Amino acid sequence: MWTPALSKALGVVASAPTDWTHPALLPVFSSAAVVLGVTTSTLGSWVEKVGPRTAGMVGSTFWSGALLTTAAGIEMHALPLVYAGYGVLGGIGWGLMYLTPVTAAMKWFPDRRGLATGIALSAFGAGAALAPGIIHSLMDTFAVAPDYIGDCLLTAGVNATGPLVDLTTLPDGSQAVAPESPVGEPGTQVVVATEADIAKSAGLVSTGPGVYAVGTGDTGAAKAMASLGVLYGALGVAPEIVTPAFSTGYVSALGVGMALGRFGWSAISDVLGRRNTYALFGLGVPIVGMAPYLCHTVVDMASGGDGGSSVWPYLGAFYGGSVLAITFYGGIFSVLPAYIADLFGQKHAGAVHGKALTAWASSAVAGPMGLAYLRSHSYDNAIQDLLQTVDANDSLALERSFGVSVSDEEAVQTLIDAKTLTIEKLLELAPAGTVDPTPFLYDTTLYAGATLMTLAFLSNLAIRPLDLDSELQKMEAGRTKLKA
Fold first, then answer.
1. What letter does residue 87 receive in the DSSP assignment?
2. Would you state the pLDDT for residue 89?
3. Is there a contact between 50 and 451 (Cβ–Cβ < 8 Å)?
4. In CA terms, which of 39, 85, 256, 447 is 20 to 30 Å from 297?
5. Residues 6+ apart with CB under 8 A from 417
6. Which residues of the chain are modeled with pLDDT < 70?
7. What is the per-residue burial (b if ≥16 Cβ within 10 Å, else e) of 424-450?
8. What is the spatial distance between Cα 55 and Cα 40, in angstroms, rounded to a whole number?
9. Within a 10 A sphere around the Cβ of 278, how many other Cβ atoms?
10. Total Cβ atoms within 10 A of residue 347
11. pTM as predicted
């Protein structure tokens, strides 16, 4: 929810060279998950000792402080402060507020552990369902459009009438208004927003594609997060279908799915058994593995002019499959405490659960790192493919707009690293009908995810209940041997 806004905190309509990159932002969540794991592992016994009221109050205080600290980091554009806020304070609050309802519910309802923990943890899913609408509303309220300077050659085309902003590319790959430009203040650092960039701004700007001054707008992310912190403390491919409202509804539906999964699968596990319920979660493998196929099919249909109602079955399959898969995600966490209690007994279930969450914390580090690597690899390949397409169509197009030729690989890479040369801008130079590769950037990630889910499915099938009689006999034999 926050990453797109944070990656455009200065440019607002498009990422500026000094904006944070996705690889720099993804570990923020990972750090929070690591701290969550450490918190649940080290403070699990403390939560059981002080009780849910005190633990919940302390956790809420940490979470409120996390949001306020993160908001300050965004406003000051200080990434370490963002890590300290969301990563450290947020991880502590998250861990305390996660353990509190789980340990209390299992003690209060020992005969229905799965159902009890499912109801308690469904609130996390309900929050995920409500959050997108609230966050978007707050950001829209506080957002400020950046200063529009004028049109340029890239966005207006070679047949433009009227004066255009003349841009110069600096050694670091960023762009600024050229000294000889007839429009704009010379030396002003700028970003160039294409039609695709403007479409993503969801109505923030009315001036359309063109040149915008860096640092003159506001995504509203800092003020939105600060508002939530105060409140908490006090308390593309088928544009006529996939609109910002559709996307927000999709994210909300995932939150609803998570809530239903946490509640529903935990209740079902009381009947089917924990191991069998986890085996059902293996249905997520074909859902994730087939997602790229559905995406490619929709894009092919839309690019071929066969959009509208014919896209809905595929889009509906993707939508429904995603919601079903996210119910599995919610179910994994809500069924886990009862699964642990069944395997190891209720007495130490809370402490064992805390230790088990450290594995999830580890995956929260490896996952985003792997995601960043695979997405970056796919992005680089997409950029290179588009460069070849642009060069084949018009060998001088890149030089006219950015002052470099495709053959100058070092200069081109500098522009890519500075986020001056992006997929959206290359599509402006590419011939009509060129397919936008953005929807395919996560294909390799989804295939990798399906592979790991298959390994998890097989690992669950390998779990066997402890043979108490055999273990007791071994212990007795060991004691007899020591006495002898």
1. I
2. 93
3. no
4. 256
5. 173
6. 1, 111, 113-115, 119, 121-126, 128, 158-161, 202, 231-251, 302-309, 484
7. bbbbbbbeeebbbbbbbbbbbbbebbb
8. 12
9. 24
10. 9
11. 0.66
Do 34 and 364 touch, CB atoms closer than 8 A? yes
At residue 215, the 3 state secondary structure works out as: coil
Q: For residue 215, which amino acid is it?
A: G
- Tokens standing for 154? 């890239």
Contact by Cβ (8 Å): 412, 387: yes
Strands 175-177 and 189-193 turn out to be: antiparallel
| The two three-digit tokens of residue 239, written as one number | 């544009």
pLDDT value for 386: 93
**Six-digit token string for 288:** 């994730």
| SS3 state of residue 189 | strand
C-alpha 121/C-alpha 365 separation (Å) is 23
Q: Reduced to 3 states, what is the DSSP secondary structure of residue 207?
A: coil
Cβ-proximal residues to 32 (8 Å cutoff; 6+ apart), any chain? 86, 87, 88, 90, 91, 94, 364
**Pairing, β 148-150 against β 189-193:** unpaired
Q: Render 410-469 in DSSP notation, one character per residue.
A: HHHHHHHHTTSS-HHHHHHHSPTTPPP-GGGTTHHHHHHHHHHHHHHHHHHHT-----HH
Angle of helix 409-417 relative to helix 349-393, nearest 10 degrees, comes to 140
Q: Give the model's pLDDT for residue 237.
A: 40
Label residue 222 exposed, middle or buried (CB < 10 Å: 0-12, 13-18, 19+): buried
| pLDDT, position 238 | 45
Cα–Cα distance for residue pair 15/3, rounded to 1 Å: 12
The H-or-E segment that residue 68 falls in is helix 52-76
Residue 170 gets which letter from DSSP? -
Dist CA 11 CA 205 (whole Å)? 13
Tokens of 168: 């110069």
